[in-house]
Specification:
The chain is mainly β. The chain has helices spanning 53-60, 73-81, 150-153; strands at residues 14-15, 17-23, 26-32, 35-37, 42-48, 62-67, 95-97, 103-105, 110-122, 125-137, 157-159, 164-166. The protein starts with 13 loop residues before the first strand and ends in a 14-residue tail after the last strand.
Length: 180
């Protein structure tokens, strides 16, 4: 018998990312654990309305999604501990600007440059519906065929109920082959 635990969100863990955006003319960074896939070329980034970063995204309609690996974890965590409204986070990471002016973390193994198509508001949250304009990846996290290799990339996962970071695990099987 299963126990009803209410309307608990049970889809964690999720990849941990740092979102980059220009806010008041400066790069700003925010640790994000609420994001999702919306097809093959769209993602959704959900940010509490109180975040300083939201105003920059609303203004520019641009953001970057920087995947966090273990080497970036301490700085990424710091980006979530402080608000850009209280402390300048522009120099927290080495950065480069995409052609569209979006700040991207130089040391992130994978970065997606995104354009905001729409904003869907829910109670307390701005949900940015984004088109992926470009994805940049370090060559060492790509297969010979040019696809992302998550066994090499090893993104950090975020688990909400316990607020813990997890390492990705081992491959346990090939999709669409275990049920044959």
């Amino acid at each position: 018998m299963k126990k009803n635990i209410g309307n608990t969100l049970a889809l964690y863990p999720t990849p941990l990312v740092v979102v980059g955006a220009m806010v008041n003319g400066k790069p700003n960074w925010l640790l994000v654990g609420h994001l999702g896939i919306m097809g093959h070329d769209h993602v959704m980034v959900s940010l509490a309305k109180a975040h300083y970063t939201n105003q920059g995204i609303m203004e520019s309609k641009k953001l970057s999604i920087n995947i966090v690996d273990e080497a970036l974890l301490a700085k990424a965590d710091r980006s979530g501990c402080i608000s850009g409204s209280k402390e300048d986070k522009s120099e927290l990471f080495d950065l480069m600007l995409a052609d569209g002016g979006v700040p991207m973390i130089t040391d992130a193994p994978v970065t997606m440059e995104c354009s905001v198509e729409d904003v869907y508001e829910t109670k307390g949250f701005d949900n940015f519906i984004c088109t992926i304009d470009n994805t940049y990846a370090e060559e060492n996290v790509l297969t010979e065929g040019g696809k992302l290799d998550y066994r090499t990339l090893k993104p950090i996962l975020f688990e909400m109920p316990t607020y813990e970071y997890l390492k990705t695990g081992d491959v346990i099987g090939k999709c669409m082959s275990l049920g044959k």
